[in-house]
Amino acid sequence: MSVVWERPEPSRRHRPLLDRPAIVAAAGALADAGGLDAVTLRGVAARLDVLPMRLYRHLDSRDDLLDLLADATCGEIALPAAGVGDWRARLRALAAATVLVARRHPWYVSLLGSRPPYGPHGLAYQEWLFAALDRPGLAVTELMHAADAFLGYLIGQLHLELLRVPAGATAHVPAPAQLSYLARAVAGGRHPTLARIFTEGRQLHATEAFEAGLEIVLDGIAARLT
Amino acid sequence: MSVVWERPEPSRRHRPLLDRPAIVAAAGALADAGGLDAVTLRGVAARLDVLPMRLYRHLDSRDDLLDLLADATCGEIALPAAGVGDWRARLRALAAATVLVARRHPWYVSLLGSRPPYGPHGLAYQEWLFAALDRPGLAVTELMHAADAFLGYLIGQLHLELLRVPAGATAHVPAPAQLSYLARAVAGGRHPTLARIFTEGRQLHATEAFEAGLEIVLDGIAARLT
DNA sequence: TCCTTATCGATACGCTGTATCAGTCACGGT
DNA sequence: ACCGTGACTGATACAGCGTATCGATAAGGA
Predict the structure, then answer these.
(1) Are B162 and B109 in contact (CB under 8 A)?
(2) Would you state the pLDDT for residue A25?
(3) Which end of chain A is more exposed for a tag (fewer CB within 10 A), N or C?
(4) Where does the HTH tetR-type domain lie (chains A, B) (predicted)?
């Protein structure tokens, strides 16, 4: 039906303690502590010392809450100063700022991939990205394709990064059960290339993998932009 | 703890009607009908005409079920014949086969981005991908980076594709509420580049966007492989 | 001062994943 | 042939979830 960001908050005649920023902040704290599953309306309400149904004066549903949380977290991404450096440097800086927030709030990655980025901060982010790529005489289609490739890689790679750090494992230290299973599965001989990688290749550092892939994408964009 | 694919199914002394493939098939049917949310243990059990707790002889949790569903759906991806064409053609074919399945089962996209691809079909998929990129003398690191960029883009772009087809809208026909909201939000003047794209740029066809971005990534890989 | 209307607090419903436990059936050893 | 044993089933139960509903309440306008 309607869109969260166009629904006004109620005039607070009664009590000033509850507004959307407070609710979203509580939700974010819960997410940081226990992942998105921990963001329950009851949990948020309890953290604000309020009854659950009170939240429905500010939200229509839990989906609204997650939309607001996604946009608020997007707002945490510090957009670099516009217009400095060439487009490559600008895109690198944007990616770095995004990854920074995504590493601080792992749950944000799945929001990023599943919620339309149409909140105020999401729009600002997109505006910055398109402006960074834009140049006089560039066809709109080319612009969209380049932004698409960049965003697609960014979102996908962040997902992959989380997959490599399975639950219950500290960063860069895979869960031993999964690792030994992999060794066994690959040892069967039916996956020779995987086996080679598994034995020869050292574990990829997340940052290294991200940046290498990013350069690949930037190279591809460069080939199209000239 | 342990990994689903290494846990044996129980010896079926009593009844032959229930095994993992049947359970996963039921789960897939439910997902096709109502998305991942519709895949509940009670729903799967009802569809198999069985009491819910019976499933726990074959699974440890709902997470197991989703892991199995993800791998089974990965198995639907028809891996092209190995070794035909150059690496570019091979990667294009793999991407096309993947997108085909993802479009048939939209829910698969979020599984793809959130479940480790370590089931038998997932391993086969990765083996195919790495083998398609491999060549004599290529450093393992380069191989990993290229595969990483490809997979990252693939997963991210599929997510983006779903975001552009919001719930309640048929494919390529955005929900009108969201569209008119966007028009209003962009008209504020604070997003000039977005505004230009919104008015000048025609709606991107999903397939076109995907393929354009893929070529960008392939170009980038080519620049690194030589 | 009274009425209207927005807000609050509480209760309740249907749904979820899954722990528990008593009953039952099929098999293996003797 | 029998019977103990252990695997498997079916039923019930519990805590948690999102949220619909509704009477009580308190504030603002006349």
Answers:
(1) yes
(2) 97
(3) C
(4) 17-77
- The token pair at A75 is 């707002």
Position B188 in a domain: no
Say what the alpha-carbon torsion angle A205, A207, A209, A210 is, to the nearest 10 degrees: 160
Using the 3D structure, point to which of A31, A47, A74 is the last residue of a domain: A74
- Residue A196 resides in a domain: no
Question: A89 CB contacts (<8 Å, ≥6 apart)?
Answer: none
B135 shares its domain with B219:
yes
Provide the Cα torsion B27, B30, B34, B39; round to 10°: -40
Separation between the CA of A59 and the C1’ of C13 (whole angstroms): 21
Report B:84-103 residues touching A (Cβ under 8 A): none
Q: What are the per-10-residue average pLDDT scores of chain A (226 residues)? A: 71 67 97 97 96 94 97 98 90 98 98 95 96 93 95 98 67 64 86 89 82 96 88
B64 & B91 share domain: no
Instruction: Indicate the DSSP class of residue A53.
Output: G
- HEC profile of A112-170: HHHCCCCCHHHHHHHHHHHHHHCCCCCCHHHHHHHHHHHHHHHHHHHHHHHHCCCCCCC
Has residue B170 been placed in a domain?
A: no
Same domain for A40 and A120, yes or no, is no
CATH number of domain containing A48: 1.10.10.60
Nucleic strand C within 7 A of Cβ B122:
no
Range(s) of the domain holding residue A212:
80-164+204-225
Tell me, yes or no, whether B102 and B149 share the same domain: yes
**Which of A124, A216, A218 is closest, CB to CB, to B221?**
A216
* CATH code, domain carrying B151: 1.10.357.10
DSSP state of A80: P
Would A182 be classed as within a structural domain?
A: no
Locate the chain A residue with the closest alpha carbon to B175.
Answer: A1
- The pLDDT value recorded for residue A198 is 85
What pLDDT sits at residue B205?
83
Number of domains, chain B: 2
Please say if the pLDDT value at position B43 is more than 50.
yes
Which one-letter amino acid corresponds to residue B155?
Answer: I
B70 and B32 share one domain = yes
Q: How far is the CA of B59 from the C1' of D4 (A)?
A: 29
Q: Do B152 and A114 make contact, defined as CB atoms within 8 angstroms?
A: no
